[in-house]
Amino acid sequence: MSFTITMNSQEQKSSLDHFLEKKRNYNKTSKIGYSVLLYNGNEEQALTVYNSFNEEYKDIKVKLSYVSPDWKVMTKAYSTKIEAERIYLIVKEKHPNAKIL
């Protein structure tokens, strides 16, 4: 026995509109984009990298976070990869292990 559920075009449009509205709201609040990972490892070294970076690059926002089992020092999320690459080029000399995520 099989059942088929059909939706008329008005119901499909309403469902699609609802989905698109939810997606737009999610995108407004989420931090989707590209960041530069400066450090990933132990807490002591992460704090050192975070503090020294904040002193040297006052115009570049970074955050310190803990994702078990490591601490991460990352820049804010940039909406395009080109923006993140620009920051990467600025910091790669002093942070050779930096990566764009």
Question: How does the SSE layout of this entry go?
Answer:
Layout: H1 9-29, E1 36-41, H2 43-56, E2 62-67, E3 70-75, H3 81-91, E4 99-100
Characterization of the model:
46% of the residues lie in helices and 20% in strands. It is α+β, with helices and mostly antiparallel strands and 101 residues long. Strands 2-3-1-4 form a four-stranded antiparallel beta sheet. The longest helix has 21 residues, at 9-29. It starts with 8 loop residues before the first helix and ends with a strand.
**H/E series:** HEHEEHE
Separation of the first and last Cα atoms: 49 Å
The parts where pLDDT drops under 50 for at least 5 residues are none
User: Structural class given helices, strands, pairing?
Assistant: alpha+beta
Outline type? elongated
**Counting H and I runs of at least 4 residues, what is the number of helices?**
3
What Rg, in angstroms, do the CA atoms define? Answer: 21 Å
How would you sum up the major sheet?
Answer: 4 strands, antiparallel
Strand segment tally? 4
